[in-house]
């Protein structure tokens, strides 16, 4: 078997709320193989976003070990985590967080230029990703000129712009109607598979989860 792209061992996270301690993650173990698309299911408040934040290396406060591509993130200084995030991870959120003053293409070009790609290559990749998501006719539209589903597809293109080994998606179609959600998720899965990326996708939608390679369930702070 290949070396996992993500390996979580004994991942724990607690929060203090009104003088009370809530143990949200109580020892999560998970391996994700390269190219594997894993659905993370669990009811509202079960800790799916908290788990994605841990793997995304965006927040501290976790106990346990988080290895990304074989590197132990919890042992790295902040700039090491930033490097690991840039080299390996792409993010899609429920609300797209696109830059409102930039058009669809520029929103996908930007992260590539930050990563050091030259502008011409970045433009070509942005246009190719957006076109493969059915947005070839929306390349110069700003977010406010796009529908919710189109905005979310731009966010998918942006997440894949730097060819991440792992895409982290938190309810990526959660604010879309059922039909649009199905279409966007289908395009997301097709693109992620085509790119050979792995993905961890948080959702509470069983039907959407069944379209992924494997389903894991967060319950009482551990994965069933
Ligand atoms: N910064 C925080 N401070 C205090 N409690 C928090 C914080 N972040 C999350 N929690 C609590 O942790 C629990 C898990 O939250 P989380 O957002 O991870 O759940 P979720 O499964 O993603 O939920 P949803 O499906 O509704 O998005 C919740 O009870 C939440 O109130």
Automatic annotation (TrEMBL):
Q: Give start and end of each ABC transporter domain.
A: 6-224
A biological process term (GO) from this entry = lipoprotein localization to outer membrane
The UniProt keyword set, sorted, is:
ATP-binding, Cell inner membrane, Cell membrane, Membrane, Nucleotide-binding, Transport
Q: Which CDD domains does this one have?
A: ABC_MJ0796_LolCDE_FtsE
Cite the InterPro entries for this sequence: AAA+_ATPase, ABC_transporter-like_ATP-bd, ABC_transporter-like_CS, ABC_transpr_LolD-like, MacB-like_ATP-bd, P-loop_NTPase
Listed GO MF terms = ATP binding; ATP hydrolysis activity; transmembrane transporter activity
Q: Which PROSITE patterns match?
A: ABC_TRANSPORTER_1, ABC_TRANSPORTER_2
Question: Under which name does UniProt file this protein?
Answer: ABC transporter ATP-binding protein
**Could you tell me which species this protein originates from?**
Erythrobacter insulae
